[in-house]
Write a structure and sequence with these properties.
By secondary structure, the chain is an all-alpha fold. It has one domain. It contains 17 helices and 2 strands. A two-stranded antiparallel ribbon has the order 1-2. Strand 1 and strand 2 form a beta hairpin. Helix 15 packs antiparallel against helix 16. The longest helix has about 30 residues.
């Protein structure tokens, strides 16, 4: 009986679902996500009017759409966080296969919207990017396979999950979308490491990634152009990276002032991929540090709660989702300050984008569902019992 309640918040099974959900939820992480969305709306008010005027829309057209998509994302997050891990797993696996099929048909029915990469389905009133929905589904599916491999007479889940990860990475690289491909491989690698992968194997995988990057550099003009721009000694001030780095430099610690920024008039992706440059220019590094702290809150608190988790599947899936969430934010901000090559990746819950917002809401909802407190002994109890 002690094992069933140790380390958990006592919750009566007859309690209504809302109070029970709230008491077991990581409210700090959820609050951080709501604040990130609020920051995104604030920055959207500054960054999107120039693009709206250019495209003949009302000044706050994109902000209104971000509010609608963001509202749907937050609702999806809350509903998903109320589900049990088994329900999340079933729905995630179904969603993964649907997104995978959509990814397969992108070369035939997809569009590039003039950006040189076929990543979207155009629905007329909106667009859908399958890779955004594929990522959380893949993480849960791969975690299920990896956890099954740890069971006695279990399937070779490590081999299967690696094969699926490589197929997805190949399909994404063909779009081309090397950033999302790298993110998928990173998420799988983190889970594989947590599942007990030997270090030598991980080093070999890193070598394969470097080899694949070398091949991509020699075969893809799109990839080579971005790498060359990143390695160049001087940054062309008329490029997106040039505008972004100059905006961050101009903003300093406290920014130039609300509405005083100029980068939003020059950057075509100021409201999406380079939204952090708008934040740095108008509000300074103070707001940037605050945004980083919000992402760190979600990731660190999730890891801390997952360290006490006994279920291998929940531990692996939660770790993969938290790692992918944090690394995507790091990649977006790293590109803006020229620590990484340009990737075309959004800043979760802050950048404009319907697919990114809704898929992000689902992913964080899954993470919150996996990190909810459940009646169980901590994993440390098992280790102590084995040493007695």
């Amino acid at each position: 009986m002690t094992e069933m309640v140790h380390g958990a918040i006592p919750v009566a099974s007859s309690d209504p679902i809302i109070p029970r959900w709230w008491r077991t939820l990581d409210s700090w992480s959820m609050s951080a996500v709501f604040m990130l969305f609020a920051v995104g709306i604030l920055l959207g008010l500054a960054a999107s009017p120039p693009l709206a005027a250019k495209n003949g829309f009302e000044p706050f057209h994109y902000v209104q759409r971000q509010g609608v998509f963001g509202g749907l994302a937050l609702v999806a997050m809350i509903i998903t966080s109320m589900m049990s891990p088994s329900v999340v797993r079933r729905l995630a696996v179904i969603g993964f296969f649907c997104a995978f099929i959509a990814l397969l048909f992108l070369p035939i029915f997809g569009t590039d919207f003039g950006k040189g990469a076929t990543r979207w389905y155009s629905l007329g009133f909106a667009s859908v990017q399958p890779s955004e929905f594929l990522k959380p589904g893949f993480i849960v599916f791969a975690a299920w396979l990896l956890a099954s491999a740890q069971e006695i007479n279990g399937p070779p889940g490590r081999v299967y999950s690696f094969a699926v990860a490589m197929v997805i990475a190949f399909l994404l690289a063909m779009q081309p979308d090397f950033g999302q491909a790298a993110l998928v491989l990173f998420g799988w690698g983190v889970m594989y490491f947590v599942a007990g992968a030997p270090m030598l194997l991980l080093v070999c995988m890193a070598g394969l990634v470097i080899l694949a990057g070398s091949v991509a550099y020699s075969q893809s003009e799109h990839f080579a152009r971005r790498i060359d721009g990143f390695l160049a000694t001087d940054v062309d001030p008329t490029t997106q990276l040039g505008y972004a780095t100059n905006a961050i430099r101009e903003g300093g610690l406290f920014g130039t002032g609300v509405g005083e920024g100029q980068v939003k008039w020059s950057l075509p992706d100021a409201h999406t991929d380079f939204i952090i440059a708008v934040a740095a220019e108008e509000y300074g590094m103070v707001l940037v540090f605050f945004i980083i702290a919000l992402y760190a809150t979600v990731v660190v608190r999730s890891f801390m709660r997952l360290m006490r988790e006994r279920d291998p599947f929940i531990r692996l899936a939660g770790t993969g989702l938290a790692a992918m969430f944090g690394v995507q934010a790091m990649i977006n901000m790293g590109v803006a300050v020229r620590l990484l090559p340009a990737k075309g990746m959004t800043l979760p819950f802050v950048s404009y984008g319907g697919s990114s917002l809704i898929a992000g809401g689902i992913a964080v909802g899954m993470l919150l569902a996996f990190t909810r407190t459940r009646p169980q002994g901590e994993i440390g109890d098992i280790l102590k019992g084995r040493t007695r």
